[in-house]
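Following up on my earlier thread - several people asked me to post the actual chain instead of describing it. Fair enough. Here it is, all 575 residues.
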Amino acid sequence: MTRVNEEDKHVSRRHTTTLALVLIVMLSTIAACSSDDDTTGQASPSGGSSVTTAASGGEPTETTTATAAPGGDTTTPATESPTTAPPEVADGGSITLGLSSEPNTLDPTGAVNSAAMTVFNAVADTLMRRDPATDELLPHLAESLTESADRLSWTLVLRDGIVFHDGTPLDAEAVRFNIERHRTSLVTATLVAPIIEIEVVDATTAILRLDAPWVALPAVLAAPPGVMISPASAAELGDDLPNNLVATGPYLLAEWDREVSLTLVPNPEFWDLDHPPLLDEIVMRAISDDAGRRAAFEAEEVDCFNVGQADITALRRLGEEGEVRFVEVVGIPLMNLFNNARAPFDDPRMRRALVEATDSETLVEALAGGTGVIANGPFPPGSPWHVAETGYPTFDPENARRLVDEYTEETGSSPTFTYQTPSSDSLLELAIALEQMWEDVGFDVTLDTALDQTTLIVNVITGNYDMSIWQLQDFADPDVLLYNYFHSTGSLNFEKYSSPTVDAALDEGRVNPDSDERRELYAEAIRTIATDVPVTFGTFLITGLACIDGVAGIDPGTIHGLQFPARDMFRTVPG
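Reply from S.P.:
Thanks for posting it. Predicted structure:
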């Protein structure tokens, strides 16, 4: 076994880009960066059905303004503390949220962490949304979204009369401006890649033209690419845009004092009169340490906080006893990427052997207090895209040892690799436990556990790694996640995986409008990925939100990862 430090490495930096910096959010070390697509207080939408559809071979027919979304989130509500009756809304008041990080930026083209999404939830609106109670995909800033008969364009009509916080109108030109910014973003361009042109027809109508039919477009317009910010403010703010957010939501950004707090106040001109802001003030404080957030909550310095995995069991009990409002979710998986392009993991037997050498149940019990959910694919139980039997290898150290011996005999040396993680006490503990399991079956492992997060990301995106800890981004529609990570041409395919079977399934899933057929296509892709093992699927992280009894609005259906549904939160009337 070997340990290496960052100063002992000579990493080429010439490929460092803005993408490397923002992709830090994908790492499992920052649970705070469990990015979520939902920004408007609704469940993240999933593709597979259009909001209004075109009659076959004829003119577009607006059959409905609400179509049941066949998909679901990669985060799934797990439990909620019991309530006896809906709480009564108090008039105004202030709440303080203890977040696990600060927003990485307030520019939607670069915002990826849950803190940024919490701010968007309160300050911004998206063109589309999904109703958390009915699972329906609904227009939001848009009045309608209609797919053309040839399925190569969508016509978007805006609600009339909506203005940005600076008083300028939300119009079709603003839609074009915002989506064009995503098309040129190093962070979000992949989310809108099928859009090749935005045509402004009139003040309230835009046509989004595609290079091929794309089922996931309505879902993407409920994600960050659907967040509308003021073009006038973007021009005025210039380089200061990441520190500001001038949008259309129920709250305004009043102040952001970095490393101290971020304060929101009500938008008196909010367009949705049926859902006005319910608080006089929302204060957000970033407290990166799990224990520190819990201590701030117990000291009544914050009203709500992001619950760390170590505190899940305790908060479950307090929620059951009615002392706090607590909701937990099963999130996206903690995983590892193999570099499929170099030894030893260019040999699929070594990828399988490493997974079979890993005792996930023992790790969950020993290091996560038994609160993790062992993963066998990218989507957790409860997600419509979850596949119960994927063929993913299970713990079998005897077979792992046989495969390693076979490899050693053929190549003349034992399989040797370096496992990289960022510097973290908890990750070091995990890495040492994994190293022991892997070396027990014959792997020769070097641990590189003193990396800064940027270096780790640069190593991965430039292919300068053997195996690296990672975390999938939390995309609502499976097209966006699976295509980008596992298609041979995917922009996030850092593991360098290629499978004709997977490519064919993902290509068809991207264009097929039939939700049942899409599920079968993605199940086929997931089973192939699980048996090829281009990555390891470790455990689905369990996270949660907790509030004092006098604050409500955190409910199943509105909770995703570590993002607070800030626009829905309110003070309750005592009693």
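The first strand starts at residue 2 and ends at 4. That should answer part of your original question.
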